[in-house]
Write a structure and sequence with these properties.
The chain folds into two domains: 88 residues, Arc Repressor Mutant, subunit A (Orthogonal Bundle); 227 residues, no CATH class. It contains ten helices and twelve strands. With 332 residues, it is of the alpha+beta class. The chain has a seven-stranded mixed beta sheet.
């Protein structure tokens, strides 16, 4: 006698546990995450490697996630069942299930490393109410960053109330989101540069951002900063700076991955604006269009004033010249 096969029960969003909800939402936000970054978002608290591996294996078996091979280790995208559950739950934007092209994986992973590192930093900052992060795939010269962060913070740096203990607040990313009284929202448009665009394309990207900026109405109590990060060294950063200051002239911070990762290991700690080196020197991570040291923390340095200033034309011939000039002014 042949046993009758019992059809598998169809799982709904409501039947999932909170950890699985969080995992699906985070992977949907980020499109592609390496294993360590995915686990950092899903398990903010300490968890054993065995428990982590068992849960990942279960999610893979249920097709909530799918492993993607990468040179640095295993990565994950949404699986078919995961995408279905998000769609049926009413999420307006669903990340692709088809494996992303190999040529764009490095940029996605770098952007997400920045987003995860930033999230881990702000989670322990009591002045921050929460953070949303979403990845935006490369789109040529179109005015769309690789990633977008929205960080809620107390305007005076006092402890901010949190809707969630883990500070995950994707609602901050909404174009029409208005923060509560006493709070501000900082939007970071993250541009990851791998050196693939020539000077003409950098100029076109800057012009497109200028045009989009002029057409955008920003919600009250928010400010936007463009964050340019390149893995091709300072000479490449100069080319980006030149195109940006001549054709966009919008609030921007500039750095290299080499500078960002000084003394930090795998986690970049972008919330910390300064790196102290073993030889006693210190290096600023972020500089703006005028070569001034800047911080992503809204209460550091002169950020309370500078973040709302109106950009004026840049006089220096290079970013290096601007940084040196600011260094001389600080030492006088």
């Amino acid at each position: 006698m042949v046993e009758k096969r019992v059809p598998r029960r169809r799982i709904t969003w409501e039947k999932l546990g909170e950890r699985t909800w969080l995992m699906l939402q985070r992977l949907n936000d980020c499109i592609l995450l390496d294993e360590d970054d995915l686990c950092a978002l899903v398990w903010p608290e300490a968890v054993s490697r065995q428990a982590r591996a068992e849960r990942l294996s279960h999610w893979h078996a249920e097709q909530y996630i799918q492993p993607i091979a990468a040179p640095g280790g295993r990565c994950y995208q949404l699986g078919r069942s995961g995408a279905r559950l998000l769609r049926e739950a009413g999420f307006p934007r669903i990340a692709p299930v088809r494996p992303v092209a190999e040529r764009v994986r490095p940029g996605l992973l770098l952007a997400n490393r920045f987003g995860v590192s930033l999230y881990e930093d702000i989670r322990s900052d009591l002045g921050v109410s929460g953070m949303g992060w979403v990845i935006r795939p490369f789109s040529g010269s179109d005015a769309r960053g690789d990633g977008l962060a929205a960080i809620g913070y107390d305007l005076d740096g006092l402890p901010a109330s949190r809707a969630r203990p883990d500070a995950y607040t994707p609602e901050y990313l909404g174009a029409d989101y208005t923060p509560a009284v006493g709070l501000g929202v900082m939007r970071l448009v993250v541009e990851i540069d791998s050196g693939s665009e020539d000077a003409r394309q950098l100029v076109q990207r800057a012009r497109n951002w200028r045009a989009r900026w002029d057409q955008t109405v920003w919600p009250p109590a928010t400010h936007t900063v463009f964050v340019w990060i390149t893995d091709k060294g300072f000479a490449r950063l100069e080319a980006i700076w030149s195109a940006w200051t001549q054709h966009a002239l919008l609030p921007a911070f500039f750095t290299t991955i080499e500078t960002l990762s000084l003394g930090t290991g795998r986690r970049w700690h972008p919330w910390n604006p300064r790196r102290h080196l073993p030889d006693g020197r210190s290096v600023w991570v972020w500089h703006d269009m005028y070569g001034r040291p800047r911080s992503l923390r809204p209460w550091d340095l002169d950020e309370a004033t500078l973040r709302f200033e109106r950009p004026v034309p840049v006089q220096a011939r290079s970013l290096g010249e601007s940084v040196e000039s600011q260094g001389r002014m600080s030492s006088e």
